[in-house]
Design brief:
heterodimer, A: alpha+beta, 5-stranded mixed sheet, 9 helices, 34% helix, globular, B: alpha/beta, 5-stranded mixed beta barrel, 8 helices
């Protein structure tokens, strides 16, 4: 069971051949009113649920190769790679917790958000019918499952963020955020006397270390952290999630933050929590931090923890009709 | 590697130690948040013959209904077990459960329950939904599907060579406690 598994995924041709988009499907952005996002959204979900982004796979392999061969940490990371290959090959969910579906839509002037919302919801219903998504939307108190992933109030699930931008393209990003990792997210208010954390970068660092130690393996480590510094209770948490969309191995545009991220990743990987909390050198795959503005009286540090199976993806509909996936 | 087949005797369980790697075979019963609350509060009799000397799996699978009306598991990895901490020890004792499969480990109350009744906590790789679904060979039955919904229902399945690690044994040992302690000590050094 301990030989190094090579993560070879199916080729882009094979992925394209399994697409739900009819061959030659083109987006007509000259007619935004007539644009139907249902099929592209469904294809995006098909990919995000079954195919892990390459940067995440690379980080897992790097982690595995840093563990002692045959150790529990090594074998666990190896099993994660095996799982990635299987899910991709079968086009089945990487994880049974297909998560809460969080969507970001960026669009030019003229797109109807109301129509787009309906189309995205229709795609989520269809993906659930096809067993690409587990029905993960239940009534808070009774626990009653709607069975379709639809929140009847059209508010909470799927969670859709819209932003109008200057570009002519339409971009949709999706994140499938599992419940286990969501539960180990944390929000701190600085100063924090218990942690001895003040209102500075050292204080922020203490919060991050505390959150990772408290999470242990329960968020399915090695995790990826989004850390928002500032904002209010809502915007800070929201930002911390959005940060997880950034690719691993890319630099933070803020050089100070970039240095901080690299340093804290190294520190966290000396905690010894390891994959699934079994012990080992790979506790996190990356940290993405961003500074925001805040009210002078409030200083929040919000941390979103993403599991190793960081399912995210985006689709861009271009003016020439082309559709690209990332 | 230790091969175990359910039903399991208390004697077999008492021999297991933290760190043992186990391949599990036979029947396993899925249950998570709603099921555990229900078992602790209502102690339904009908579950007794289903759970005695058996193994509970903390899992909410992605399922597919086949054309002939049978079910298949499409993705079936473990869910975080600590949410069942308020219920687990009582469930183990009431139903004489011999093992609990999950991820992330459990706390002191469960550890005491494992020691008292003679049961172990078996850790499966979280997120390995595809890999583990391949080892879930057959869905035998499902209970409370209507009431709880598919992620929470009691799925009774047969597994083959289901790969697990004993991370909490029936003698008070817990790998999770050891890793947690070490990481807390290291964190103190890092933040000094």
């Amino acid at each position: 069971m301990s030989e190094c598994v090579i993560p070879t995924l199916t080729s882009s041709e094979v992925v394209a051949s399994k697409s739900v988009l009819p061959e030659g499907w083109k987006a007509d952005l000259s007619n935004l009113k007539g644009l139907d996002l249902t099929q592209p959204m469904l294809e995006l979900l098909r990919r995000s649920t079954s195919r892990l982004p390459q940067d995440v796979i690379d980080a897992l392999v790097k982690g595995r190769d840093a563990e002692e061969e045959g150790s529990r940490a090594f074998n666990t990371l190896n099993d994660m790679v095996r799982n990635i290959i299987l899910a991709d090959g079968h086009v089945t969910p990487l994880c049974q917790d297909t998560g809460s579906i969080i969507v970001w839509v960026r669009h030019p002037f003229g797109l109807s958000q109301r129509a787009a919302k309906q189309q995205i919801r229709a795609a989520v219903v269809e993906a659930t019918k096809r067993s690409w998504l587990r029905p993960n939307c239940v009534e808070a108190l009774s626990g009653k499952n709607t069975g379709t992933n639809m929140d009847p109030f059209h508010e909470h699930h799927p969670s859709i963020h819209f932003e109008e931008w200057d570009k002519p393209e339409v971009e949709i990003s999706v994140m499938q955020k599992g419940g286990g990792c969501e539960n180990v997210g944390a929000q701190y208010r600085l100063p924090d006397a218990t942690l001895g954390a003040g209102r500075d970068i050292k204080g922020v660092r203490k919060c991050i270390i505390d959150a990772v130690v408290k999470a242990q393996g329960q968020g399915c480590s090695p995790g990826i952290l989004g850390v928002a510094i500032g904002g209010d209770r809502v915007t800070s948490y929201e930002k911390s999630k959005e940060l997880i969309l950034r690719k691993l191995g890319t630099s933070n545009p803020d050089p100070k933050m970039d240095a901080f991220e690299k340093e804290i990743v190294n520190d966290l990987n000396t905690l010894g929590i390891g994959p699934m909390g079994y012990g080992g050198n790979t506790t996190v795959l990356g940290v993405m931090a961003e500074e925001m503005y805040r009210h002078p009286a409030s200083f929040y540090v919000s941390i979103s923890y993403m599991c190793w199976s960081s399912r995210r993806g985006s689709i861009t509909l271009k003016t020439n009709g082309e559709v690209s996936f990332d | 590697m230790i091969r175990l087949t359910t039903p399991i005797t208390e004697d077999q369980i008492r021999q297991l130690k933290v760190g043992d790697e186990v391949l599990l075979n036979g029947r396993v019963v899925l249950s998570r948040d709603m099921g555990h609350k229900y078992m602790k509060e209502q102690k339904p009799e009908w579950l007794k013959p289903i759970l005695e000397n058996m193994v509970i799996y903390h899992c909410g699978p992605v399922v597919k209904k086949n054309e002939d009306g049978t079910w298949s598991f499409v993705a079936a990895g473990p869910t975080t077990s600590i949410r069942e901490e308020p219920y687990q020890a009582d469930v183990i004792d009431t139903y004489k459960v011999r093992g609990v499969i999950g991820k992330g480990g459990m706390g002191k109350k469960t550890s005491e329950g494992l020691q008292k009744t003679g049961a172990v906590y078996l850790h499966a790789t979280g997120g390995a939904g595809s890999l583990l679904a391949e080892r879930c060979k057959r869905v035998v039955d499902v209970k409370m599907l209507e009431e709880f919904g598919s992620p929470e229902a009691f799925w009774i399945i047969e597994v083959e060579d289901f790969p697990l690690v004993v991370t909490m044994d029936s003698h008070g040992g817990s790998l999770h406690e050891i890793v947690a302690q070490k990481s807390q000590e290291r964190a103190k050094v890092l933040t000094a």
